[in-house]
Amino acid sequence: MAPPERSPLADRGPRGLDAELIGFAEQLRAESLSIGTSELLDAFAALREVSWADPQLFREALATTLAKSPDDRRIFELVFARYFFRAAERQAAAHDVVEGAGFEGADQIDLDQLRQQIAQALQEGADGQMQDLARMAIAAFGDRGDGSGVIGVDVQRIRRQLGLKSEPQPEFPEDDPRHDGIPREELRKFEQQLRRELERALIERTRRLPPSRPLSELDRSLPGGPIQDLAAVHKVVLQLKRRLATQGHETKGHRRHAHVDVRRTMRASLETGGVPVVLKYRPKRPRRPEIFVLCDISTSVASASVFFLSVLHALHDSFRKLRSFVFIERISEVTEVFERERDFQAASVAISRDAGVADVSGYTDYGRVWSEFLTEVEDDLHPRATVIVLGDARTNGRPPRDDLFAAVAAKAGRTFWLNPEPRLYWNYGDSVIAAYARHCIAFECWTTSQLEDFVKALTGPASDLPR
Amino acid sequence: MSIEPASVEEVTAGLRAVGYLPGESTALVSYLAAKLGKPVLVEGPAGVGKTELAKALAKYLDRELVRLQCYEGLDEAKALYEWNYRKQLLRIQAEASDTGWDSVQEDIFGEEFLLRRPLMTAIASERPVVLLIDEIDKTDQEFEAMLLELLSDFQISIPELGRIDARTQPVVLLTSNNSRELTEALKRRCLYLWVDYPDAAHELEIVRLHTPELSATVADKLIEIVHEVRELDLKKPPSIAESIDWARALLLLGADDLDGQVFRDTMSVIVKHRTDLELVAARVGVRLGGAGAPNGAARTIPTR
């Protein structure tokens, strides 16, 4: 798809609303929202029914027809703000409309008083004044010139000069609004407003729009990082439990038919003089593999550990034959802990207290882990066993000993590796995932949807796996 | 006869009049649903008033509410229609042997022998209705696919009878607790409404509407605590319905202030997991202070 900025409509002077809307939908599509023609038609139909003069109604009418999940809605908000801001600025630039840039007599502003004023307004959540405050701040602290040219840098510089922080700052007096810290959400809004005002100033100076960038992965992901969002993890784990519970009952198509058990059919046929009147089928048993899970709980995967442990916990409820191990430098079996503790919180506390997996350095030692794992469970591994490793494959410079890992993988039927790092960072620095990935199926697993993919692979038939 | 709203403000006012305080987007989407005749997919956490919205809409639009509660394994026979098998049998017996197969077949697959289930009822109703398909995410994908025909064209195909078209345009609401991703095809046919927990001022208004006798200070404090509790990482955060229940409970107990003791005695109205209770008692209960050790956490409301 061509970038919307270079679409043939862009240079034909003022465009109608319909063209703008189609351009808007194109940008949403570029951000991987699936918007069909039928959705666009719905949007137009909805706009016929509401007043356009109310920006709130206009936006909601578009949102309800175009963005159809909470995630889509987040992206919609971002793109909406950006697109219509740019559309308005393009018109303004075309018509040489210049808003009063900043204030007359910026020199006379009392800086300390302004700092107080802005902090006060943010503390109270005065959204209405946000634009004025941002302009005042830019006028006072924005160097009155071009700034650094990079808007992101300027925004942070102005924020620092204003002394705005979300954490409490005890050095200020009690009655100063900054003493208890500024609410994070308000601060974010203020930064956004600053960015917008700086952009507008830049456009007015240069008389043209800067090239538009697609939303970065960071903008799109949920605030606080996907893995840390425990509520979302709990939800996926819950689904995982449900899927595992019903697993094996919903085979479709030709797989639904059972295979004839020849041996038992022949045996039954003896009753009828060797004529196989009654066919005996092989019983259909859902796949309930024996699972061995190894979970890294060292500091390098600290943020993912909670996530991994909760996955482990969920698996315990669903598989009877599951043995779990945690490791850092050494390995320790925690199967019993999970069997004893039904509650996740208590289980994770017990593990960190009793496991005793850190020796001296507290860094992961994969070589030692494999050798200990082999000695402990070698005899129990068999072709119907599944081994799952949860870890980042960062060896801290120690030998990876992938030969031992290969031995584990060879003994087990299937081996999976869940890596909490984005694929981009694999094999970078001390990560040796490639050495291990030769012997197993490696999944990147740092969002809940990737976890779902893994669960599908784990519970699905073996033939569907990418090898 | 049923009401045709003419503007978003009218819908807001109408819903308020029947005891439902809609957020801005809720009112807008309800208005669009009535105007465009498109089904609405309402998603959001449990207990934010998704089902209540359908009830309120039915009341405001003066239409009958037809409700289909979804569950795992729900099938066409329970959602659409079923042939009244016993009656068919009786008919065949009554006609006995002297009629030919053709005429019997024609007879027993008539409307007379059709048992209408909620979706069929909504479609065939003489007066326009509000159709609520509750917790659609609980059903399987197959059922979702079956709904598509109904949602886009408001018609149902019965092999023996042919197509049954809607006599009137129902307002359709589908609710989902988001426990599973719905198919694109279904979403495409719907308007989307995400209902979230309301902000403090809005929720206060809702609670005041349902318990006008509760004193303002207690109501203020109650909402503040409910919001604080929602911030914690709980298994089940308190819903709006539960804040209303709590307000009612406090009213019943005649509490004139919400201090630590009262909170610990009544918190089981809003928090319903053992682990959650401990967490909330530790965080919120301690802040509120007052007499009573934290082990009062598991206590229930004293009965009067």
Q: What about the largest sheet of chain B?
A: 5 strands, parallel
Q: How many alpha or pi helices of chain A?
A: 18
Give the end-to-end Cα distance of chain A, rounded to a whole number of Å.
32 Å
**Structural class by secondary-structure content of chain B:** alpha/beta
The name of the CATH architecture of the largest domain in chain B is 3-Layer(aba) Sandwich
Number of strands of chain A: 6
List the strand order in the largest sheet of chain B: 2-5-8-1-9
Helix content of chain B: 40-55%
CATH domain fold name of the largest domain in chain B: Rossmann fold
Query: What is the helix tally of chain B?
Result: 14
Quaternary organization: heterodimer
Write a structural description.
The complex is a heterodimer of chains A (467) and B (304). With 467 residues, chain A is an alpha/beta fold. Chain A has 4 domains: 4-94; 106-220, no CATH class; 231-247 and 288-464, von Willebrand factor, type A domain (Rossmann fold); 257-285, no CATH class. Helix content of chain A is 49%, strand content 7%. Chain A is built from 18 helices and 6 strands. Chain A has helices at residues 17-30, 37-49, 55-66, 70-94, 111-124, 130-141, 151-162, 184-206, 217-220, 230-246, 262-269, 302-318, 335-340, 344-354, 366-377, 402-411, 433-437, 448-459; strands at residues 290-296, 322-327, 331-333, 385-390, 414-419, 441-444. In chain A, helix 16 links the parallel strand 4 (385-390) and strand 5. In chain A, helix 1 (17-30) crosses helix 4 (70-94). The longest helix of chain A is centred in the first third of the chain and has 25 residues, at 70-94. Chain A is extended. The model of chain A is unreliable at 1-13, 216-228 and 462-467 (pLDDT under 50). Chain B has a 5-stranded parallel β-sheet, sandwiched between helices. Chain B has helices spanning 8-17, 24-36, 50-61, 76-79, 85-95, 101-108, 118-124, 141-153, 184-188, 200-210, 216-231, 240-253, 260-266, 274-288; strands spanning 40-43, 64-69, 81-83, 114-116, 129-134, 155-158, 162-165, 171-176, 191-194. Chain B has 3 domains: 8-72 and 118-194, 3-Layer(aba) Sandwich (Rossmann fold); 81-116, no CATH class; 200-298. The model of chain B is unreliable at 291-304 (pLDDT under 50). Chain B has 304 residues and is an alpha/beta fold. Chain B is elongated, with a radius of gyration of 24 Å. The chains are: A alpha/beta (467), B alpha/beta (304). At the A-B interface, helix 2, helix 3 and helix 10 of A face helix 2, helix 9 and strand 9 of B.
